Amino acid sequence: MNAVGIPSANQDPADFTISADEPILITGAAGFIGARVVQSLLDRGFRNLICFARPSSDRSRLDSIIESRPAGTKIELIKGNLLSREKCEAACKDVALILHLAAGIGEKSYPDAFLNSVVATRNLLEASLKHARLRRFVLVSSFAVYSNCDKPHGRILDESCPIEPRPDLRGEAYCFAKVKQEEIVREYNKSHGIPYVMVRPGAVYGSGKGDITGRVGINTFGSFLHLGGSNTIPFTYVDNCADAIVLAGIVNGIDGEAFNVVDDDLPSSRQFLRLYKKNAKHFKSVYVPHAISYAFCVMWEKYSEWSQGQLTPVFNRKRWHADWKKTLYSNRKLKIRLGWTPKVSTAEGVRRYCEASRRNARNA
Amino acid sequence: MLKVAIVGCGKIADSHAAQIQRIEGCEIVAVCDREMLMAKQLAERFSIERHFTDLNQLISEARPDVIHITTPAESHFDVARMCLDKGCHVYVEKPFTLYAAQAQILVDLAEEKGLKLTVGHNDQFSHVARRMRALVQSGYLGGPPVHMESYYVYDLGDPSYARALLGDQDHWVRRLPGKLLQNVISHGIAKIAEFLSGDAPQVIAHGFVSSLLQQINESEIVDELRVIIRDEKGATAYFTFSSQMRPQLHLLRLYGPKNGLEVDQDHDELIKLRGQKYKSYADKFIPPVQFARQHIGNWMTNIGLFLSRDFQGDAGIKYLTESFYNSIRHDTPVPIPYREILLTARIMDAIFEQLNSANAQRNSPAPTASVL
After folding, report:
1. Measured in whole angstroms, how far is the alpha carbon of residue A236 from the centre of its chain?
2. pLDDT in tens, B129-158
3. Which of the residues B6, B7, B9, B11 would you substitute to probe the A interface, choosing the one with the greatest number of A C-beta atoms within 10 Å?
């Protein structure tokens, strides 16, 4: 126990949930975070990895990690779709740990997002039951699941905050899918005893990430509307996030817990935007004060309802609370229970991100 | 109260559910999907009381009057036949069936059982398409169309569908006889079929894999198609499907013996193409002003529709569905004549036969003609 009464992490490899040679399945392994998770596992000495990636995914980063893996390390690459139960069964064979990162990111339609997140997750859970070797299922979820209303600690958003009760009304298919994805993992825990841990990263950024997070602002009608203002943005650098996911898979005694992932020394939206414009790409932005963005969201929501969906309810009060309300973030639980510390400082992370964005803009 | 059910709870089912719930005098009583989770999510989001994984059970327990089939295309025929057999009216999403012979069986069965049938060619029921139809019926063209041009441009860059399709060798679209084309061209073909005479038009099709797809080693998905159609009375049509040309047109032009019409589905614009010429330089100065007036008129119509809350993206689905339900209630003709559904299916059959035969004879790429 530490001074604040939260049990501390034991970082001794002998006390990890799995040993270095037991198989670990990583879904979404070729993705933005997935490839870094693979690297983080290798850095920690794990020698038996199964990487699951969609056939259409860009595997260049993963391929280079696989090529430069340490001697004696086994990495199996399975190309497929988690909607295939057969592929899931093949991937889950004898695995001790599943780090489930694959999700329907970028899907605008609710059914598509649901299918690629929830149905895919159910398939994995079912497949893992057949082999009965799984000791932990780590679901990489998102801050999107929080309602950011009725928080028990004022402005602070932490793991005790309520989950969005009506994700279907948020206007974001991703939020709906993530809430339902968490629900199904809890259901399988309850009905089949599958041990799980939820990891909820904030805004993951780093080299390879395209757009600026919507929490800062949105690009629409030819101009960038800066909505974040003085809000703190819950950034986590991709390498730091990958470390947190790996720790959530291997640290003992945390089954059934959820962990938010945000870095230290978080910048405000305004500070970030200034740095980005100076170091990555200059563009014009229009600041929208919080009162105006809130009023806009209310009007949009009301109009959408009145017009029977003539404008889809992409802006609404629920979304405003989740994305643009002034909020503070805590990584205390992550640090204490998992022993996590951000390897890359926010200053360094933003510098790397801006440099990569500048390079991409030049090459575009 | 008309009791409605939806079978297949994917993306397009959302559009159906949203529009059905805007129509008076009907209620969605149940939804069905082989994947229980998909059925459940649709039922939850649209506050639908019951969801099923078995269609037989849905029909016997929820007893719907009408069933909307929004499953993948390969199952349309079997599901529609089963629904008709059980005494339900059926709305089938496009493409109606995989083959014209299947379409004929469904139409025959519906007629035999006294049930109604329609297909999701909702583009033909958008506001602008309805204005066009009214003008044609008023005789604006000066007679039946002499020639038509239908453009349907499909952006393969759309991440949600194309990425899944191109990256997945087992994607259900690849199993269709016409593959990608089968799932998307029926809108553009049906717009032509509406104005064709007879049941056996001549069809000449040429399709190929775009250079963009070839670059990513795609050899199976034909994403460029050019078709010439000629009906028994001599009316002709060009159909163009492309994934590469820009702008991304969804456009129909009708040329009559007297005047023409242009229906721009993307901007909801209907432009009259006046057949008569002005004298001398007047023909250079007056028509541009007239076109400008027409564009402003379209703009005002669109603003009016928006302000009156009748400009939803899926307004065509609502109108078609409402018309279909009315035809059931009052036993009046269906909004899309069966002849048109069958003709669309036959033209598509002819296109895919030619593409598949050209694909089989890789060394003879010249287009061939066939008479239905």
Report:
1. 9
2. 999 999 999 999 999 999 999 999 998 865
3. B11
* Cβ <8 Å between B312 and A306: no
pLDDT of residue A104: 72
Look at residues A212, A197, A188 and name the one whose alpha carbon lies nearest to residue A159: A197
Report yes or no on B163 lying in a domain: yes
A66-70, A233-237, B126-130, B276-280: least confident range: A66-70
Answer whether B101 touches A (CB < 8 Å).
Answer: no
Mean pLDDT for A296-303 is: 97
DSSP A104-138: -TT--SHHHHHIIIIIHHHHHHHHHHHH----EEE
Q: Can you give the residue range of the structural domain that contains B50?
A: 2-123
Give, to the nearest 10 degrees, the angle between helix B127-137 and helix B282-307.
130
Closest CA to B264 of B144, B151, B120: B151
Nearest to B78 by CA among B101, B54, B102, B62: B102
Residues in chain A within 8 Å Cβ distance of B38:
111, 114-115, 119
- Total domains in chain B come to 2
Residue partners of B252: CB distance under 8 A and separation at least 6 = B132, B148, B149, B150, B151, B191, B192, B262, B263, B265
Antiparallel, parallel or unpaired: β A196-201 and A258-261: parallel
Q: From the CA of B164, how many Å to the nearest CA of chain A? A: 8
**Global pTM value:** 0.92
**Residue A5 pLDDT more than 50?**
no
* Chain B contact set for A308 (CB, 8 A): 22, 309, 312
Give the residue from B61, B93, B123 where a domain finishes: B123
Task: Provide the CB-side half-sphere exposure for B21 (13 A, CA).
Answer: 17
What percentage of residues in chain A have a pLDDT greater than 90?
A: 82
Q: Please give the Cα distance from A60 to B38 (Å, whole number).
A: 33
Alpha-helical segments (H) within chain B: 11-20, 36-45, 55-62, 76-85, 100-113, 127-137, 164-167, 179-184, 186-193, 211-215, 282-307, 315-330, 338-360
Query: What residue has token string 């968490």?
Result: A182
The DSSP secondary structure of B16-33, one letter per residue, reads: HHHHHTTSTTEEEEEEE-
B312, B182: one domain:
yes
B169 in reach of chain A (CB within 8 A): yes
Q: What is the pLDDT of residues A84-111, one digit of tens each?
A: 999 999 999 999 999 999 987 667 899 9
Considering the domain architecture, whether residues B300 and B160 belong to the same structural domain is answered as yes
- Whether residue A120 is predicted with pLDDT greater than 60 in this model: the reply is yes
Q: Pick from B11, B168, B306: which is nearest to A56 by CB? A: B168
Residues B4/B27, Cβ–Cβ less than 8 Å: yes
Residue that terminates a domain, selected from B78, B93, B123: B123
Q: What is the pLDDT of residue B159?
A: 55
Q: Are B176 and B293 found together in one domain?
A: yes
DSSP letters spanning A245-303: HHHHHH-SS-TT-EEEE--SSPPBHHHHHHHHHHHT----EEE--HHHHHHHHHHHHHH
**SS3 of residue B308 by DSSP:** coil
Longest dimension (CA), chain A: 64
